[in-house]
């Protein structure tokens, strides 16, 4: 990969009148590489992709899904595109979502950023989160109320 320092040096040498062949010998690069960088056909520090990006085929589908629901979970979208033939992993998928900036802006969600928070240490198993759950159609015909305890570190729930 052609670095930024090599790019600056090649540009400076070319401005001094050096030939592309002389710059290539001096930097230990091919003439094609030097020519591409001097003509701004390639950018220093960026790798050229070996093949087509598999994420690009799903961009129209993802845009349509985000138009329907801007808050759809990335994991749900990943399951959908895998069923459509997406070959890569979940981290690669989420990196593609960020790189292509597909998730639309939501003002309600944007207000959360920058808010003061307090981090409380939760050693594994040291604290439980207690919640009530209402079961509207219990087998005995009445509403049932269930007290649930959840471990924050694992998400394991017991009632």
Explain this structure to me?
The chain is an alpha+beta fold and 159 residues long. It has 3 domains: 4-38; 56-109, no CATH class; 129-158, no CATH class. The protein has 7 helices and 3 strands, in the order αααααααβββ. The chain has helices at residues 4-15, 20-27, 31-38, 59-68, 74-83, 90-99, 107-110; strands at 129-135, 144-150, 157-158. A 3-stranded antiparallel β-sheet has the order 1-2-3, with no helix packed on it. β2 (144-150) and β3 form a beta hairpin. α1 packs antiparallel against α2. The longest helix is centred in the N-terminal third of the chain and has 12 residues, at 4-15. The mean pLDDT is 83.
> Overall pLDDT, averaged?
83
SSE succession: HHHHHHHEEE
- Beta-strand percent range: 5-15%
Q: What is the 3D form?
A: elongated
Low-confidence stretches: none
Numbering strands along the chain, what is their spatial order in the largest sheet? Answer: 1-2-3
| Structural class assignment | alpha+beta
Instruction: Give the oligomer, counting copies of the same chain as homo and different chains as hetero.
Output: single chain
Count of extended strands: 3
Counting DSSP H or I runs of 4 or more residues, the number of helices is 7
Distance N to C terminus: 57 Å
């Amino acid at each position: 990969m052609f670095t930024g320092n090599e790019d600056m040096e090649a540009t400076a040498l070319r401005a001094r009148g050096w030939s592309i062949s002389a710059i290539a010998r001096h930097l230990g690069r091919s003439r094609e590489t030097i020519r591409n960088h001097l003509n701004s056909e390639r950018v220093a520090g960026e790798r050229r992709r070996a093949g087509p990006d598999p994420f690009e085929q799903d961009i129209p589908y993802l845009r349509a899904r985000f138009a329907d629901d801007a808050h759809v979970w990335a994991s749900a979208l990943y399951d959908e595109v895998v069923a459509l033939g997406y070959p890569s992993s979940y981290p690669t998928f989420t990196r593609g979502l960020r790189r292509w900036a597909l998730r639309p802006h939501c003002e309600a969600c944007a207000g959360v950023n920058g808010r003061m928070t307090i981090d409380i240490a939760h050693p594994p198993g040291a604290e439980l989160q207690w919640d009530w759950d209402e079961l509207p159609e219990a087998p005995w015909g009445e509403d049932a109320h269930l007290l649930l305890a959840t471990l924050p570190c694992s998400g394991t729930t017991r009632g």
